[in-house]
Predict the structure.
Amino acid sequence: MIPDGTTPGGRRYRCKEFDSYASAQELLREGHTYLDSNGDGEACESLKHYRWSAGPAWMHCLPWPRCPGPPMKIVNRCAVTIAPRQPFIEWAQRQQPDQPLPPGGFEPGLYLLTAYETREQAIELLAQGCEEIFCAELETWSSDPATWPSPRNLALFQEWFAFQFFDLVGDQSQEPLAHYEVDESFLDDLRSATKDSPLG
């Protein structure tokens, strides 16, 4: 709990502290409105679908009783998906004029973020990392930074991409997570994929 004199009782709660969805709603009714990050009248909506085992939120998450299989794991990350808006699409077409538009539209990208508690924190994280995400998306279509738009800040990012945050990331795989280096060979394969097969 975080001391905060502006909240009822001078305390500020995190969603991962609650053992049930009902507990979060009770505090919301008592005036802890920050728990309702999107203003729809529900606090900590992720708790509607999961009940936590003992321990931090990124440990095992117990599925509903009717769900088969081993307990799903929750990773200690949140996520953001991004989808190109018209400025990006037009720019990509100029870089590869012979490449037809994907019939189903451009495939969204997904990036993991440090875990956050509120949408304001999520926006702040995106502002800090948006240039790196921007460059990753641009690099897929052009390896020449001279063709990239500038400044690649949050304001331009919001013009070029639609995005959506996800504060709960489940992992159904039994294989351990792994990280891979993004090198020129990987990028060449990725660019070839955009030319040889539509991304939609």
User: Anything to note?
Assistant: The longest strand covers residues 77-84.
